[in-house]
Design brief:
Pfam families: Acetyltransf_1. It is built from six helices and seven strands. By secondary structure, the protein is of the alpha+beta class.
Amino acid sequence: MSIVVRDVREHELDSVLALNNAAGPAILPLDAARLRYFFDRAEYFRVAERDGSLAGFLIGMGSASDHDSSNFRWFCERYPNFFYIDRIVVASRRRGGGVGRAFYADAQSYAELRYPQMACEVFLEGTNDPVLLFHGSFGFREVGQHVMPEADMRAAMLMKQLCSHAWVHETYGDALPKLPWVLQPRVASAPLAQRPTGTCS
């Protein structure tokens, strides 16, 4: 069956929470309040469906957000404009079946119209070589490492250049065509012209 990627619905938050907290040590745990924070603030919060059931989710923030993650702030201190993947979770029974690649393709399609780079991190505790390999095969490169003070965990900080962004920005500026597949942010955010170009908000 095909994979369907779409915006999360409020009634699915309990299922998303359970999925996150069953993901293992590679993903920081959440509580209901923290998940609501993401639901209310995240620019990109989408789920994947396969065979009619929830197969995973991805949460992303633009660099103009006031996200409080120390990893996000690390990128903010070094890069002026980027799309940040806070977390991606794929249900254990669906791993290796293309759900992660479907998410990244969808997130990139969204981000490259608006941002020159995508950022994320991979925890280096334990055996995360498969996760690093996945990101490397998708074009991410390590640009540094950071120890999260809130979790005392070291992460590889990864960045991917979005080659199409320059052409889109030069051709359309801040007025993207009104096409159904050109998704608008889930939550109100600053227009492109008002996004900070030196530091995050």
